[in-house]
Specification:
alpha/beta; Rossmann fold; five-stranded parallel beta sheet; 11 helices; 50% helix; 9% strand; globular
Length: 260
Amino acid sequence: MKNKQIYELLANAIENKKIVNGYIFSGIGKTQNYKYAKEFAKMILCLEENGESCGNCKACLNFDEGNHPDYYEINNEQTESIKIDEIREMQSKVIEKPITSKKKVYVINNSENMTKEAQNCLLKTLEEPPEFVTMILVSNNDNNILTTIKSRCAKILFTEESKEDLTEEEKERYEDLEKVFGNVDKYKSVELLNKLDILYKDKEKALKNLEFINMIFMKKSKEDMKYLNYIDYVEETKRKIKTNGNFDMCIDYLILNIWE
């Protein structure tokens, strides 16, 4: 199943109020799996409740600014394991009712790094979760997750997006972007900025093109790992644009970080 089809199913689940309490997002790599988990969380928390995140309601704006009161995540990039104390701290908030949205969402990134003690602790919440809670476990290797946890979660398996998944019009835009971002070493930062008229200053088109750029970087990361860092810069640029940051400064941020 293609990622677009998965998103349609998830959006329908939100619209029809059939979200389950536990999900495992897996498939293509920790950066992308985590990105999809965040997008799904935003969709759930959106006050419009129509399956898509509107981007304009209080919940969406709070989420983009990183301060939504009904969103909690464990995202340990610097440590080798997620310990029981972190799960207990999260659990202390689970029973509290939502403040802004009708749901609360908890994301555990790199969930395969939970110790067995942490997983057994989490299991207690998954067995009897409050109806307003959704937990999303992001994993690059769910073989390390307890079977008892997996049995209580819906597994969502993403695939790497490719040019072939795009419409003909989107393919043309992707190819334009690939000429520039397929080899960033070819350009100096000023030259890159001069070529960025292809990003547009229209917010929605810019965000879509940034998605294409990340597809290009994901493809290139198989040849050079530095492109994985570029994906993070693109995600931060998207966040800045969504929160109405100055467009030119947002793009400057992206290009200068890539060039450095």
